[in-house]
Design goal:
This protein is an alpha/beta fold. The chain has helices spanning about 15-30, 40-50, 55-60, 95-105, 110-120, 135-150, 165-180, and strands spanning about 5-10, 30-35, 70, 90-95, 125-130, 150-155. Helix 4 crosses helix 5 (about 110-120) and helix 4 (about 95-105) crosses helix 6. The structure holds flavin mononucleotide. Flavin mononucleotide binds near residues 41, 96, 97, 99 and 131.
Length: about 200
C-alpha cells in the first residue's frame, strides 16, 4: 500500500543542495514531504544554500511547497515520531556521522533520530545518504550495524557515467538514485545504458 508520503531528515553534513533537489523532485511527483532538520542541518542550509529561515516555501519553490510539512526537531510528539504515521520511507540527506552514530546506537535525542529509529522498527525503508571522507572505522562499523538492522547506506557520491555538465546534473543524479531507493518514479537521467560504440 502506498501512502505518497516520504520523511526527509536533514543534518549537519555538507550537501544541503542534495536535500533541496530531492524535495523538489519528490513534490513534483506529488509526494507529501515531512521534514525534520537538525540545528546543524539548518546551519548547512544557510551556509551552502542561503536559506535563512526554513519554511516550506524556502525549501521548495513554487506550488510544491504546499506538500511540505516542517516538524520541529525537538518535538518528540510530532506525527513522524510515531509508528502509527504511515509513510513510504525516510531518507536522511545529507546524513552526518553524528546522526548515523546515534541511530546505530539506538539513541534518539532528536526527531530525526527518533523518526529513523521508528522507520527501522516498523520495517520501513530508511536511506542513510551519508557524507564524510575519509570514513573512519567507527563510521564503517555504524554503517555495518545499520545495514544489518535494515537501513540502506547510500553515500552521496554521484556517478560520472552520464557525463554531467553541471552541478545541477550531479544533484539530479543523486536525487534520482535516492528516488529509486524510495520507490518513487522519475525520469531523471540516472540509468546506465551500455553502448557498443563507447
Ligand atoms: C560547515 C560544516 C560542515 C560539516 N560537514 C560535515 C560532513 O560533511 N559530515 C559530517 O559527518 N559532519 C560534518 N560536520 C560536522 C557536524 O555538523 C557535527 O558533527 C554535528 O554535531 C552534526 O549534528 P547533527 O547530526 O545533529 O546534524 C560539518 C560541520 C560544519 C559546521
Amino acid at each position: 500500500m502506498r501512502h505518497n508520503k516520504i520523511v526527509v531528515g536533514i543534518t549537519g553534513a555538507s550537501g544541503a543542495p542534495y536535500a533541496l533537489r530531492l524535495m523538489r523532485h519528490l513534490t513534483d511527483a506529488g509526494i507529501e514531504v515531512h521534514v525534520a532538520i537538525s540545528a546543524l542541518g539548518r546551519r548547512l542550509l544557510f551556509d551552502e544554500s542561503d536559506i535563512r529561515r526554513c519554511e516550506p516555501e524556502t525549501l521548495v519553490e513554487g506550488d510544491g511547497c504546499s506538500l511540505v510539512t516542517i516538524h520541529n526537531d525537538n518535538d518528540m510528539g510530532a506525527t513522524i515520531a510515531s509508528g502509527s504515521f504511515l509513510h513510504d520511507g525516510m531518507v536522511i540527506v545529507p546524513c552526518s556521522s553524528n546522526t548515523m552514530a546515534s541511530i546505530s546506537a539506538g539513541i534518539t535525542t532528536s526527531l530525526v533520530h527518533r523518526a529513523a529509529a521508528v522507520s527501522l522498527k516498523e520495517g520501513r525503508r530508511l536511506i542513510i545518504a551519508h557524507r564524510e571522507s575519509p570514513l573512519g572505522r567507527i563510521d564503517l562499523m555504524n554503517m555495518d550495524r545499520l545495514a544489518q538492522a535494515g537501513a540502506v547506506i547510500a553515500p552521496l557520491s554521484p556517478g560520472f557515467y552520464m557525463r554531467p555538465e553541471s552541478i545541477d546534473d550531479l544533484l539530479d543524479f543523486m536525487a534520482g538514485r535516492l528516488m529509486d531507493l524510495l520507490g518513487v518514479e522519475h525520469d531523471l537521467a540516472t540509468r546506465w545504458e551500455s553502448s557498443p560504440t563507447r
